[in-house]
Specification:
The termini are far apart. The radius of gyration is 14 Å and the shape is elongated. The protein contains 3 helices and no strands. Helix content is about 85%, strand content about 0%. It is mostly helical. It has one domain.
Length: about 80
């Protein structure tokens, strides 16, 4: 049952994340996913996928906030 839930979450979450990210922010998602997967792997069995999703979301948010601040600071 747990395996089915993980696969479903990945199948739903990945396309949504890819569709919602711009190419400039994809780098942050990939970096966060890699770091989250490693951290999740060390936390316990089966947490690498959840760590990757959380890392991607966190770094996407970070880079989006950074891009918004940079856009507001730019002269118009």
């Amino acid at each position: 049952m747990e395996d089915v839930v993980k696969r479903f979450a990945v199948l739903i979450a990945l396309p949504l994340m890819v569709a919602s990210t711009s190419p400039a922010l994809a780098k942050g998602c990939l970096r966060g996913a890699a770091a989250g997967a490693v951290a999740g792997h060390y936390v316990g069995k089966g947490h690498a996928v959840m760590g990757a999703m959380a890392g991607c979301a966190a770094m996407h948010h970070h880079y989006a906030k950074q891009a918004k601040a940079k856009a507001q600071a730019a002269p118009r």
